[in-house]
What does this fold into?
Amino acid sequence: MTATNTISSSQRFTAQIRQRGQLTIPQKLRESLAINDGDTMTLLQLGDNILLTPKSLRTFELGDQLTNMMAEEGLTLADLLNDLPQIRQEIYQEKYGDQGE
It folds into this structure.
């Protein structure tokens, strides 16, 4: 679902933590981000701050999957970085050909 009433990304909202840690997201913000009853929110602690997002952050999940795949293949990050220039060149040549070389 797309947000219909987009608000400025710098607009500030306040909310009070209630009994049992409940937090009410202001209606204007819920409408702007198309957050509905029953939606699952993701909370991420960043130092002394909390990031609350209406979408599930997949960054960590994808990072874990990549780490597992690399471990299964016996690869390290250094291995991937060492091969990067060659892989870029192969992709470039596949896409553009020799281009007068």
